[in-house]
Specification:
CATH architecture of the largest domain: Sandwich
Structural class: mainly beta
Mean pLDDT: 90
Oligomer: single chain
CATH topology of the largest domain: Jelly Rolls
Number of helices: 3
Helix content: under 10%
């Protein structure tokens, strides 16, 4: 990930008036929570955008990080580069605006992030930061275990949840730009935010659900829409690039003057079309690819299947010998 310097925002109105920025040819989007918090779990069901030159991300961010000087930079990322939507980058960014400390790892996404909805999550605690894909931990940075002090450093300020769709001008990082791919969109089906409650969560877990947003409408008491630009950003972040429609938040990257969304949101429904019993267990045929299936024995608590499940394309084999009674779902209800 490349971090950037904020050039124009409400907080920098004086700077903006003194040195107006030329309007850019493209519009992008940033949706962010109004209330930052310290620690928690942040979960979203999303279908991301793809295309060379595009950056699409879900992140935690301390709102004043860009100020520099003595102000700490605090950020945790899930980031998709549109040139490679079959993987995402996990990263913690600390330090200051002038001297950032970064870490980055890469993780496979299958089906690719722009081809299917996935459930992405961040767990942030005093002891670790973890990244989850479809209910499975794919990366974890633990305090004091080679983390370069970042788990402690990122926690010095509360952070808010953000979703951002934009384009950077550095082709070496994000790929060559061709605006013939526009418009592109990032779809958010739902968001869940949990507080950190060690041992007090469901089934003795460490997180308690605070709120869920299914985007039946835009909650102006919970969310704000970005209205600024950044050094190196090819787009102006504009509120008009975010639309809530048909139960989804839609973030768009478009040519200037073409903001908004009037199409049909993609379906997040994947159906089991047939079941049969084989010597290996239960054979399942789906009408679209998924990365995992979810199981429950009580229809309340759902967990992703792991070792007992094999998926190839739209066919899955589930060794259900350890489950005398269960429910299956393609998405966690």
């Amino acid at each position: 990930m490349k971090t950037t310097t904020l050039l124009a925002s409400t907080a920098l109105a004086a700077l903006s008036l003194a040195a107006p920025l030329a309007a850019k040819d493209y519009s992008g989007a940033e949706l962010y929570t109004q209330a930052p918090q310290t620690y928690g779990k942040f979960e979203a069901r999303m279908k991301m955008a793809a295309g060379s030159g595009i950056v699409d991300s879900m992140l935690l961010y301390h709102n004043d990080s860009y100020l520099g000087g003595s102000e700490p930079w605090c950020e945790v990322d899930i980031e998709i580069l549109g040139k490679a939507p079959n993987r995402f980058a996990s990263q913690i960014v600390t330090g200051t605006a002038e001297n950032k400390v970064t870490s980055e790892s890469h993780h496979a996404v299958s089906p690719a992030a722009d081809q299917a909805f996935h459930t992405y999550a961040l767990e942030w605690t005093p002891d670790y930061v973890a990244w989850l894909l479809d209910g499975t931990v794919v990366h974890k940075i633990v305090k004091g275990q080679g983390d370069n002090g970042q788990v402690e450093a990122v926690a010095v300020k509360p952070m808010g949840l953000r979703f951002k769709l934009w384009s950077h001008e550095d082709a070496g990082w994000v790929g060559a730009w061709n605006d013939n791919i526009l418009p592109v969109y990032h779809f958010v089906n739902w968001v869940k935010v949990y507080s950190y409650t060690p041992g007090q969560g469901e089934n003795g877990g460490d997180f308690t659900l605070d709120w869920t947003d299914n985007f039946d409408s835009f909650d102006s008491g919970r969310w704000d829409k970005g209205d600024w630009t950044e050094d190196g950003n090819r787009v102006d972040i504009t509120p008009a690039a975010i639309v809530v429609t048909n139960g989804m938040a839609v973030l768009g990257l478009t040519k200037k003057g073409q903001e908004g969304f009037s199409g049909t949101v993609p379906s997040d429904d994947v159906f089991i079309t047939s079941l049969s019993r084989t010597s290996d267990g239960l054979s399942i045929t789906l009408d679209a690819p998924v990365s995992t299936l979810y199981i429950s024995t009580n229809y309340r608590t759902w967990t992703p299947l792991a070792d007992s499940l094999s998926i190839t394309g739209t066919t899955a084999t589930f060794d259900d010998s350890a489950y005398p009674h269960y429910y299956l779902s393609t998405t966690p209800p």
